[in-house]
Write a structure and sequence with these properties.
Number of strands: 20
Number of domains: 4
Helix content: 40-55%
Structural class: alpha+beta
Shape: rod-shaped
Bound molecules: adenosine-5'-diphosphate
Oligomer: single chain
Distance between the termini: 76 Å
């Protein structure tokens, strides 16, 4: 069979020795939250840094795109200007009429590009020719639709000028590449910020990043402005930010739950600590020894009381297998047998007595109760024994038995003395009579003797010897009596209540065996009496024992339980104290105290009939009296009276008053 694992039993000094939980440990539940918040802060910082870098990139890209577009637009306008200069240079040498001017390929090409009109002015600024003539051509964009116009003026050698008006909007639309137009709103603005042309519908750039770059000297007071269509998503609006927010919320909920859990655990732990402290304190204060063993008999745990009882420390005993060090060396086999019986589960349910040996060698009488030890799942894992130290009780019982024996012996001796006294008293008369008759016979024989018929000397000698023997018998009886009643009453002031209590206590077991109840009603402040406490106690014992015997003789009746009532009181004339012993037994049945106190009067099978006679003579020796009457409720009522020694009483009262 495999050895079961040791159950988790408390160590001999469990919870009280545990250090209190530090504040740091109590706040441990917040640690995951702190770490997560640091992580979240790091993510936010990263998001922000990322945004800054994206903004920076966007700004750089914007600036470079603006520069490249500026170059493109400037180049385009310069190109147009160069074409117009070339046309202006060729215009006068060619001698073109106004019609021919309008039909000139350069003019038509210019109008097809983005010119809105071309005007030929002479030196006096009069219009020589103007293309288109009348209404604007439907295939050409109208200025109303395209916003403000701009113009390129080129002087002619004759002093006139060619003025080409164009739509900056068209110019922009033609020159801004598609990929740039998708990224930016491209606009021409003046120094006041008014939009002159735009690739898109006019709209407020808002907080979209933009870059403005001057078109000087190609175009005066004009700026090219690029407004980014897409904004860099703000870090707090980004998807990771939404994730982080969700994460923080989730974390908050988890932390809240964790905190509740930790609080519950803390409460449970505090309750456990309190309980463990209680249990430890209780175990330490127990006078009952506790011993837990596994199924093989190995000691798992002993409490302080057990360790103190056998004189070994718990550390010495824990883990030990039988034979145990506290088993008496001369009874190892017997102890081992008992151990095997216990391990088989056959230990007496009501406990059993055994003898162990203290480490210092003295014998220990113990009473042991074995009970199965089960774990939390109900599995039988060993045996729990509770051990009572019975040594002192046994010792007291021995002493009590010896005392009772001694008392009985003394009682017998006293009784013998009384018997001897009675015998002496009773034999005295016959012996005196024998002596008198003997003396009379001798006298008469001597008187009647004649010289011729003298008294037979042999008869005389025999009669003398008879007288001597009778006297000797008297002396022997007297001596025996003197020997047995040699003890003089040792008188001293004593409390009658204490004497009564002492006597009754000695009989309690006997009365319990006889199923007799006893009540004591002791008068308070009873004056002391001068008496021999031992003898008076004997009287009390005799009266109570007689009452018990009388009750035990009659059958038990639940309606009328056997009862003895012992009381003390001071007589109304204050001169005596009285002890009453009343029972609810058969009563005196017409017998008087003189009958009961007659020597050798007994109705008991093994009674001697001397008890009451001795009681009476003891009381009379104390100048007291014994009386017996029928109790009003049925039963016998014995009273003993002792005189109060006034001198002693007054002395005692004075002392009390002085105190
Ligand atoms: P013993 O006890 O040896 O019989 P005692 O002198 O003590 O001698 O008692 C004498 C007798 O008195 C008893 O045998 C009993 O008949 C009677 N007696 C004594 N006490 C009581 C009592 N309380 N109730 C009835 N009878 C009693």
């Amino acid at each position: 069979m495999s050895a079961p694992t040791a159950p988790a039993l408390p160590s001999p000094r469990p919870a009280l020795a545990l250090p209190p939980r530090p504040a740091l440990r109590r706040g441990l539940w917040a640690l995951p939250l702190l770490i997560s918040l640091v992580f979240v802060a790091a993510v936010l910082a990263w998001l922000r840094a990322n945004e800054q870098s994206e903004l920076e990139d966007q700004r750089t890209e914007l600036a470079s795109d603006a520069l490249s577009l500026q170059a493109q637009v400037s180049g385009r306008i310069e190109n147009e200007t160069a074409r117009l200069i070339r046309f202006a240079a060729s215009l006068e040498p060619r001698g073109l009429s106004a019609e021919a001017f309008a039909a000139a390929p350069e003019v038509q090409q210019g109008l097809h590009r983005f010119w809105v009109s071309l005007t030929w002015l002479d030196a006096s600024n009069r219009i020589v020719a103007h293309v288109p003539e009348l209404a604007p051509r439907p295939d050409l964009p109208s200025l109303a639709a395209t916003g403000l116009s701009a113009h390129i003026r080129v002087p002619l050698a004759s002093g006139g000028a060619l003025v080409a008006r164009y739509s900056p909007t068209d110019m922009l639309r033609q020159n801004v590449p598609w990929w740039l137009a998708r990224k930016y709103d491209v606009r021409l603005v003046d120094s006041f910020g008014d939009v002159m042309a735009s690739t898109t519908e006019a709209r407020d750039p808002g907080d979209h990043p933009s870059h403005r770059i001057s078109l000087e000297p190609t175009l005066t007071d004009s700026y090219l402005e690029l407004v980014a269509r897409d904004r860099v998503t703000r870090w707090y609006r980004s998807f990771p930010m939404a994730m982080v927010a969700g994460f923080v919320l989730l974390l908050g909920a988890i932390t809240w739950m964790l905190r509740r859990q930790v609080h519950d655990v803390s409460r449970a732990e505090a309750a456990w600590r309190t309980e463990a402290a209680w249990r430890s304190a209780m175990e330490d204060s127990l006078t009952v020894g506790l011993r837990a063993r596994d199924l093989d008999g190995r000691v798992l745990y002993v409490n302080r009381a057990f360790a103190d009882m056998v004189g070994y420390s718990p550390e010495d005993l824990n883990g030990l297998h039988p034979p145990m060090p506290y088993w008496p060396p001369d009874a190892i086999d017997e102890s081992m047998q008992r151990h095997r019986r216990n391990m088989a589960g056959d230990a007496p349910r009501g406990g059993y007595e055994a003898r162990w040996r203290h480490r210092e060698g003295r014998a220990l009488d113990i009473i042991l109760f074995e009970a199965p030890l089960v774990d939390a799942s109900g599995r039988h894992i060993g045996w729990m024994g509770s051990v009572l130290d019975n040594t002192e009780r046994k010792r007291l019982e021995d002493r009590e038995r010896r005392q009772t024996d001694t008392m009985a012996h003394h009682a017998r001796l006293t009784m013998l003395g009384e018997i001897a006294s009675t015998l002496a008293h009773e034999l005295n008369q016959p012996l005196s009579a024998i002596s008198s008759y003997n003396a009379g016979v001798i006298n008469s024989l001597q008187r009647d003797a004649r010289p011729e018929t003298p008294a037979d000397p042999a008869v005389l000698r025999a009669l003398q010897r008879l007288g001597e023997q009778a006297a000797h018998a008297g002396r022997i009886v007297q001596r025996i009596r003197q020997f047995l009643t040699r003890r003089e009453p040792q008188l001293e002031a004593c409390s009658l209540n204490a004497v009564v209590e002492g006597g009754v206590d000695l009989l309690r077991r006997e009365l319990a065996r006889q199923h007799v109840q006893l009540t004591l009603a002791l008068a308070p402040k009873l004056p002391p009496v001068v008496a021999d406490a031992v003898l008076i106690e004997q009287v009390v014992i005799n009266l109570v024992r007689n009452a018990g015997d009388a009750l035990a003789e009659q059958p038990q009746d639940a309606a009328r339980p056997r009862h003895i009532d012992v009381s003390t009181l001071r007589t109304p004339d204050q001169r005596f104290v009285r002890i009453d012993v009343r029972d609810n037994g058969p009563g005196l049945q017409g017998r008087r105290i003189e009958d009961l106190c007659a020597p050798f009067y007994s109705t008991k099978r093994d009674g001697m009939g001397m008890g009451l006679a001795i009681c009476r003579s003891i009381l009379e020796a104390h100048h007291g009296a014994l009386d017996a009457v029928e109790s009003p409720g049925g039963g016998a009522w014995f009273s003993m009276t002792l005189p109060v020694d006034l001198a002693v009483t007054v002395g005692a009262l004075e002392t009390e008053a002085a105190l």
